[in-house]
Predict the structure.
Amino acid sequence: RERERVEDVELEGVCARTVFLRLSLQGKLVGFDHTTNIILSDSHERVYSAQIGVESVSLGLYIVRGDNVAVVGELDPELEEESDLSLVRAAPINPVVY
């Protein structure tokens, strides 16, 4: 039954996710499994800075183990186009303490 639900999921949407490795990544979700391992294509990392704004680093195809995934969600493409990330200032993401 779980396999049936997985086959019904639309995978072509744009995906945002943050991992416990202090990364903020965006890309197209092209695959996943029952342990939340995910595969992103056309992915990029957003690097936050308090001085120079947000830098986008292209990563291409990216595979992340499920135990590092914190959030997976859909981004609004229109809102993403309207956002000028060079004007956004933020402190870098703090590490997670176990």
Notes: The radius of gyration is 15 Å. The longest helix spans residues 2-7. Residues 1-10 have pLDDT under 50 and may be disordered.
